[in-house]
Design brief:
The protein is of the alpha+beta class. It has helices at about 15-30, 80-95, 110-115, and strands spanning about 35-45, 50-60, 60-70, 100-105, 120-125, 130-140. Helix content is about 30%, strand content about 35%. The N and C termini lie far apart (about 55 Å). The model has no long low-confidence stretch (mean pLDDT about 95).
Length: about 140
């Protein structure tokens, strides 16, 4: 087989799928589990434009929260908590038992700790002078509304 290797910062969905799809297929063959599902909890403005929300996925009994963003003008109203609770509730309905995410010390580790998450790893100096935290939570500890 002939092949080339190249480095690029220009990536589209087809490139992402060309790497992800065979990896997911391999994982499904090895584990016998085929349960990867995307999950989004969206915040929209009056014109139905998405202005924030939660982006993640469920797989192998875990919720992974990849992105969480609340517009600055809506912060302090419990919206972040509501987004997390909705995602955790949906994850429970999908049979998940745990959740994990990562955050930075200049973002929201305290917010996640208040929701019952605890740190299981720290990557120091990412970026320089800051830390990235990896956090998890048993979903039996979903906070009541």
């Amino acid at each position: 087989m002939n092949f080339t290797i190249r480095t690029t910062e220009t990536i589209d969905e087809a490139v992402h799928s060309a790497i992800l799809d065979p990896l997911v297929a391999h994982n499904e063959r090895e584990t016998g589990i085929k349960d990867h599902r995307p999950l989004a909890v969206l915040v929209s403005d009056a014109d139905n434009n998405v202005i924030g929300g939660l982006w993640g996925r469920t797989a192998w009994g875990w919720l992974f929260v990849e992105l969480l963003f609340v517009p600055e003008s809506l912060r302090g109203r419990g919206l972040g908590t509501e987004l997390m609770l909705r995602a955790e509730t949906e994850a429970l309905a999908r049979g998940c038992h745990n959740a994990w995410l990562d955050t930075y010390d200049f973002q929201a580790p305290g917010f996640y700790e208040r929701l019952g998450y605890s740190s299981f790893g720290e990557l120091k100096d990412y970026p320089a002078g800051f830390s990235r935290y990896f956090m998890k939570k048993a979903l039996g500890n979903v906070l009541p509304r």
